[in-house]
Specification:
It is built from five helices and seven strands; from the N terminus they run H-E-H-E-E-E-E-H-E-H-E-H. By secondary structure, the chain is an alpha/beta fold. It has one domain: Rossmann fold (3-Layer(aba) Sandwich), CATH 3.40.50.720.
Length: about 130
């Protein structure tokens, strides 16, 4: 798991699928944690225009440049769709935050050759913040 996490954190740019304008939601907390860690990150959410002062994109295909590492903070059924989009967009690493994963999403991401982090720690814990339960 540590090798997978190291690979994720070493390969930017980054994106957060499920980014939220609500600072209490984990999609916002994960975005802020990556920004605070000095990472180049883009929020993804089809219902948002801007999150934390960053332009928000409706999907991975809309990003102005490809991302290599994607944090996913969405319901499992959406995560299952996002992993397919991620592979098509050239994403190398996906980190399914706790609650976003499903066996199907994990299996599909692995089948597509992605470095998958799931059923493990929250990115917030890894980046040494105290906001993740």
């Amino acid at each position: 798991m540590n090798e997978r996490i190291s690979a994720f954190l070493a390969r930017g740019p980054f994106a957060v699928a499920g980014a939220s304008g609500d600072r209490a939601k984990y999609g916002n907390k994960v975005l802020r944690a990556l920004v605070a860690a000095g990472k180049q990150v883009s929020p993804i959410n089809p219902k948002q225009v801007e999150v934390e002062g960053l332009r928000c994109y409706p999907d991975l295909a809309s990003l102005p440049e490809p991302v290599r590492s994607l944090s996913i903070v969405t319901p499992p059924a959406i995560t299952e769709q996002i992993v397919v989009q991620a592979a098509a967009a050239g994403v190398e690493n996906v980190w399914m935050q706790p609650g976003a994963e499903s066996p199907r999403a994990i299996e599909e991401a692995e089948r597509l050759g992605l470095n998958v982090i799931a059923d493990g720690p929250c990115l917030l814990v890894t980046l040494a913040t105290k906001d993740c339960k």
